[in-house]
Automatic annotation (TrEMBL):
This is Cell shape-determining protein MreC. GO terms for cellular component: plasma membrane. Pfam families: MreC. GO terms for biological process: regulation of cell shape. It comes from Iocasia fonsfrigidae.
Amino acid sequence: MRYFGGSTLIISLVVVIIIVGLGFLSFSDIDIPLFNWLERGIFNIISPVLNIFTGFCDLVSNYWRGITNVNDLIEENQELKKELSELKLKQEMTNYLVNQNERLRDLLSFKEFVPYDTLGARVIGYSTSHWKKSIIINRGEKDGLELRMPVLSYDGILVGRINHLAANSAQVLLISDSEFVVGGIVQRSDSRAVGIVKREVDPTRNIMENIPWNNKSPEGDILKGDIIVSSGLSNSYPKGLPIGTVVEVEEDNYGLSQKAVIDIFLDTKTLEEVLVITNF
């Protein structure tokens, strides 16, 4: 054991002397071939190990940077999605306000030219019933509204009439409801065909019925493509309110009268503002 310990001490001293010598030679100009050979040998042994260690360190560093970059990309992507959603919302709001402004301009322009008193209102609700066709507006008894007052769209077509009232709101029965009835007349100046416009349940369609059977006379002169307007023959609606277009004419009551199928102008999908006729 003593011999082994002494040998280890000697070897250690030699290694230390060599290392010190190599270090000294590295910082001096002395050229000793033996030490140069030892220096190159040790460098050749250590270099591969250092290269492997350096490569491993670079790999770990690149991997860590990659993880950091991915997190940064995820955060940036989330921020971009948020900004895109906000821009889409702003664009939709801008489009809505532009469309609303155009409708209000049309409503104001129409209101200036109609020969009767009107009151503007905004649609605040739609009927969810399949059988009941109605809307709710934000005007009521406090605004001077009364039952059965006619209601128009912003472009002047007949929408319906008021059938229920509250203090600050009212329900409007639409022309597309089966309970709605109005007198209609062909708008063409050379025709005097009149009838009753209403909604059929089976089949579901709007019609004008009780038209005289003789289509050769002005009273029975109704053709496909004719525009139907309110007749004004009652005290409920003024004359000339646009209702719809004739798409078909057929015999009714076993040939004793005619019936016209009407494609009404009303489109509830675009109905957001209306005019209530308060006096005519």
